[in-house]
Amino acid sequence: MKFGTKVIHAGIEPDPATGAIMTPIYQTSTYAQSSPGQHKGYEYSRTLNPTRKALEDNLAALENGQFGLTFGSGLAAEAALLHLLDPGDEVISTNDLYGGSYRLFTKVFSRYGIKFQFVGMQGTAEIEAHITEKTKLIWVETPTNPMLNIIDIEAICAVAKKHNIMVCVDNTFATPYLQNPLDLGADIVMHSVTKYLGGHSDVVMGALVVKDEALAEKLYFIQNSVGAVPGPQDCFLVLRGIKTLHLRVQRASENAAKIADFLMQHPKVDKVYYPGLAHHAGHETAKKQMRGFGAMLSFNLKEDTAEAAAKVLEKVHYFTCAESLGGVESLIGHPASMTHAAIPREERLKVGLTDSIIRLSVGVEDADDLLADLDKALG
Ligand SMILES: *Cc1c(COP(=O)(O)O)cnc(C)c1O
């Protein structure tokens, strides 16, 4: 099955009871048993729910995996994965990662004796230097936020395999339409379903997808034992959102490419960070491991101040100033004062995150309107 067919059909059957084409919202916590222990595969909705099952099977297919698991948020999915680890275990993470993941690692799981190390993943040398016999997991996020750095998934998986270390890739920015980490050697794919998979800024949800059955069994045990599962209504909304994932990401990526070209020419703009641009440091790796360059981009201003950036954010009309990303509507953000405000300024500057960096989550509106909006706001 090709991707555009999978989003509509994979894991989704007409409802066996009624023939309903759309997966019903099975808004039930429990299921009738004809005799103790005699049931139709469903006992209790923390363990399994038919609406959730359809979504989990669909997600597994989209990522070319075998097993999908959904959670109440992206961070809940990450927490479930980290529950595989024991005190004393070590995790090597990219140093350029989603702030909420960083907080979960350093402020929550490190208290349980798990050690996190944050390293640069442009090349594998820093990873190799940090591997010990206690290293159990390598955490990769690519493209990164907000600098849109690209990490070579295949190269990192090759190193991990030599040392028998699991690799998890946060595939939120790329989406399974553009990148499938399991095909590149990763063991686990994580998604903030809140973003492109949901796609309409109306659900918070997370997911993990794996190929290996033994690993899946361990994760299902944690999903059921810890219990951070999403409700059936949200699963329905995501199933609905996914049906247009390929169309949305395709259009949003086209819009982003046009905006990147426009910003490159603009006299007020200094640098543009978009992996689709030939001068981007990760362009060749992106071409190798992605089927397109996505719809996230960042840029900074020649007048490199937070005040200058704020003026642009105040003047745009179709771009809404907000956190989050991946919805049909275009969003604009100022990482230094919003998503990345907790990072000290010197640390930010080291990775190129200057005071005027503006991040765009480009939506699926008409590109002409988006360009005119930015042109007006920059002028
Ligand atoms: C939003 C996000 C998360 C966290 O997901 P939630 O659904 O907000 O819990 C993790 N990683 C990335 C890259 C994200 O953008």
How would you summarize this macromolecular structure in one to three sentences?
By secondary structure, the protein is an alpha/beta fold. It has helices at residues 3-9, 50-62, 74-82, 99-108, 125-130, 153-162, 175-178, 213-226, 232-242, 245-265, 283-289, 306-315, 345-350, 367-378; strands at 67-71, 90-94, 115-119, 135-141, 166-170, 188-192, 206-210, 269-273, 296-301, 320-321, 331-333, 358-361.
Provide structural commentary:
The protein has about 375 residues and is an alpha/beta fold. It folds into 2 domains: about 5-240, Type I PLP-dependent aspartate aminotransferase-like (Major domain) (Aspartate Aminotransferase, domain 2); about 245-379, Aspartate Aminotransferase, domain 1, CATH 3.90.1150. It has helices at about 5-10, 50-60, 75-80, 100-110, 125-130, 155-160, 175-180, 215-225, 230-240, 245-265, 285-290, 305-315, 345-350, 365-379; strands at about 65-70, 90-95, 115-120, 135-140, 165-170, 190, 205-210, 270-275, 295-300, 320, 330-335, 360. The protein has a 7-stranded mixed sheet, sandwiched between helices. It has a 5-stranded mixed sheet with strand order 8-9-12-11-10. Strand 4, helix 6 and strand 5 form a beta-alpha-beta unit. Helix 2 (about 50-60) packs parallel to helix 9 and helix 12 crosses helix 14 (about 365-379). The longest helix is centred in the C-terminal third of the chain and has 21 residues, at about 245-265. The radius of gyration is 21 Å and the shape is globular. The model has no long low-confidence stretch (mean pLDDT about 95). The structure holds pyridoxal-5'-phosphate. Pyridoxal-5'-phosphate binds near residues 100, 101, 141 and 204.
